[in-house]
Amino acid sequence: MTDSPHHRGTTEILATADRLWNGETVTDRGLVGASDHGLAEVADGVAFVPSFANVAAIETGDGLVLVDTGSSFMAKSIHRTLRGWTSSRLNTALYTHGHIDHVLGTRVWDAESADNDWARPVVVSHEAVPARFDRYVLTAGYNTVVNRRQFSMDDLRWPTEYRYPDQTFRDHLDLEVGGVAIELHHDRGETDDHAWAWLPEQRVLCAGDLFIWASPNAGNPQKVQRYPLEWAIALRRMLALFDRPGGGPEVLLPGHGYPIVGEGRIRQALDETAELLESVVEQTLALMNAGARLDEAVHTVTAPAHLLDRPYLHPVYDEPEFVVRSVWRRYGGWWDGNPANLKPASERALATELADLAGGSRVLAERALALLATSGTDPLDDGPLRLAGHLVELAWDATPEDDVVREARRAVFARRAEQATSTMAHGVFSWAARES
Q1: Measured at the alpha carbon of residue 422, what is the angle toward residues 37 and 407, in degrees to the nearest 5?
Q2: What average pLDDT score do residues 353-365 get?
Q3: Which residue range(s) make up the domain with 399?
Q4: DSSP one-letter string for 149-191
Q5: How many domains does the chain have?
Q6: Does a structural domain hold residue 333?
Q7: Three-state DSSP class for 384?
Q8: Are 215 and 228 in contact (CB under 8 A)?
Q9: 68 and 165 belong to one structural domain
Q10: What is the model's pTM?
């Protein structure tokens, strides 16, 4: 093979994937993704474009098929990259789910088709995607607020226009486009509308966000219900592909992160991701069935340490502690088991009462700063910081106009953000520090 741009891109992307697997390079807070490596040809007629989120392209006898189309801010770059690989018109776009980083690139391809008098691409998704888009329009203000907070992007505005699917399916859909067979399977996991794609001839598995090179995003504290147990079931269904006569996946393309190449690695990644989720769910349900409160579950359940050590399961985006809450909400509702929290006083009323009892809000703030001074740098030993967060927030709730209290709050949550290992925690703590 010549040293073409595509060859160099393939080499660089797969070399990065290999280093990640071997732990020679690691992901930091957030998802691995946006890349300047171009694309990788991972199988005959199949290209992978690393981005936020990733896009897979399949060349067929009747045009191009895309698995996801990327985010709005990466859409033109993805289009340029793929146009350097093929000039085929886009025939079909498959949404793995309706998150905006996976679907907003479609408008670029629609515009290209209109400019060239081509038939508009057919968009295929699970049947729950349209309801997701409807909900996004209904809650655009809320989603603007929480995503600004989650990603520390103060200028983010949540979109209200979406390219709805032309064809939907419920459980399973067999597609044939230009002689290429594509199986679509529905499973709940990070979302209720998730689909994953299997290319049996190329032996390529497009997992979407059911695999993201991080501990599963099954507990996001600011988003709607996630499905940890069903997520594990989905991964087990992918593993069942290895029992088919034609053989299982040789390449796994994730929704975020880099490809995994080789049957052994793919089996391990899918199996251990499922095992982590199953462990957290099993422990949480055992405590719920024994009558425990949510507080006990949050502070008792732990994910197996040997799994969190895997380079593809580091808790850099979501955290198992948050997954515990997702399990509780899924099976137990919103009440945490504390009778005082069923019909609570307002936060301001409770904070004012406790501040008065303590001798003033500044006393609470000073104690929070004292705890901050005793805290170490180990994110797994953050007990003093957790207490400091409670105390300084009570002080701020009681007297938000007090500059001394505000500065204490800023200091506490800035430290919490600095020590946070996950995007979720870092985003919330950074927001609190900036708000102060």
Answers
A1: 120
A2: 98
A3: 345-435
A4: HHHT-TT----------SEEESSEEEEEETTEEEEEEE--SSS
A5: 2
A6: no
A7: helix
A8: no
A9: yes
A10: 0.95
